[in-house]
Amino acid sequence: MDTRQALDTRAIGLMVLLCLTWSLQQIALKATAADFSPILQIAVRSGIAAALVGLLMWRRGEGSLLADGAWKPGAVAGALFGLEFLLVGEGLGHTSAAHMVVFLYTAPIFAALGLQWKLPSERLAPLQWLGIFMAFTGIAIAFLLRDTSGHQDWSRVLWGDLLGLLGGASWGATTVVIRTTRLSSLPATQTLLYQLLGAFVLLMPAALLMGHTTFNPSPLIWASLAFQSVVVAFVSFLVWFWLMGRYLASRLGVLTFLTPLFGVVLGAWLLSEPIESSFLAGALLVLAGVVLVSGHAWLGQLWRRWGSGLSAP
After folding, report:
1. pLDDT of residue 234
2. What average pLDDT score do residues 268-272 get?
3. Residue 300 — pLDDT band, cuts 50, 70, 90?
4. CB under 8 Å to 187, separation ≥6 — which residues?
5. For the segment 31-63, what is each residue's pLDDT rounded down to a tens digit?
6. CA–CA distances in Å: residue 249 to residues 93, 112, 201
7. How many helices (H) and strands (E) in the chain?
8. What is the full DSSP assignment across 29-60?
């Protein structure tokens, strides 16, 4: 029996803070890119956060990464997690933080398609198929219906957007691996450690080979690294796993759509990024589709309650 509960004020407040934190990570990476290469910054933050998670596991007396034989799917999940942020780090050099956060958060769409193929219990409902159609329609609008008459290099922006979309697909694939392997029964800290180590092992040599090694330390750079390492990659992920263990996942999933909304607003406010009308229209369709895919069960319950209320004498 599922003992997880509906969202209360504490859960909603924490989710709003998490979404704000996750949107700010793209803003921080973009804002500091000239003095701290994003790929290098993500590699370093992953290493620091992995050390923090390892210390937490040691303090709790949790098992090692090799003890339960889950290292093979763990390595796959870690590689996909690292690939996601390799694409994000490279993409931010070509597109805006607002574009990146919207396309990255297509991940639930790709996860739903992968789980539909791998798990019979995850067959998509008609409302979810509608959401997927809306999301991909939004992606097409955001990619194809652009005003190219301005001074912006749209071919470069398009490439960055594509990398963000591929990052979302990689994130979705990571979710499928975790849900369909032994990782699903492991403590959240162990699964997170696999991902952080994978990101560090992949991104550190990638940054060196690609020449993304810029590091000009300043108070802003150290603040960004501390925020990325401790707040984003360590605290926020652990809080998310804690919420997932206590509250209904579908309702938490619906609230994650606040992250790209925050990202668009903060990108325009803090980085003065332009918001094109075609991108905004496409982004709204993408987010509506993600809400339908992630929260179809909850939305269906609300619809039935509303319908029964109308039919009551």
Report:
1. 94
2. 90
3. low
4. 57, 62
5. 999 999 999 999 999 999 999 999 999 888 877
6. 33, 14, 30
7. 14, 0
8. HHHTTTTB-HHHHHHHHHHHHHHHHHHHHHHH
Q: Is the dihedral of CA 84, 197, 113, 241 positive or negative?
A: negative
How open is the CA angle 68-70-71, to the nearest 5 degrees?
110
CA distances from 85 to 4, 52, 104, 135, 265 (A): 31, 19, 10, 22, 22
Spatial distance between the Cα atoms of 107 and 112, rounded to a whole number of angstroms? 9
pTM above threshold 0.70: yes
What b/e sequence results for 284-302 when a residue is b if at least 16 CB atoms lie within 10 Å of its CB, and e otherwise?
Answer: bbbbbbbbbbbbbbbbeee
pLDDT at 250: 62
CA 169, 172, 176, 178 dihedral sign is positive
Q: Give the up-direction half-sphere exposure of residue 255: CA atoms within 13 A in the CB hemisphere.
A: 24
Burial class (CB within 10 angstroms; exposed 0-12, middle 13-18, buried 19+) of 66: exposed
Residue 292 has a pLDDT of 84
Tokens for 221, please give them. Answer: 């750079």
Rounded CA gap, 74 and 178, in Å? 8
pLDDT tens string 127-157: 888 888 999 999 988 887 776 665 567 788 8
For residue 159, give Cα distances in angstroms to 29, 45, 110, 221: 18, 25, 20, 27
Query: Which amino acid is residue 144, in one-letter code?
Result: L
Asked if 271 and 91 touch (Cβ cutoff 8 Å), the reply is no
Distance in angstroms (rounded) separating the CA atoms of residues 125 and 50:
37
For 283, the token pair is 């982004």
CA pair distance 32, 133, nearest whole angstrom? 36
Is residue 178 a contact partner of residue 77, using CB atoms and an 8 Å limit? yes
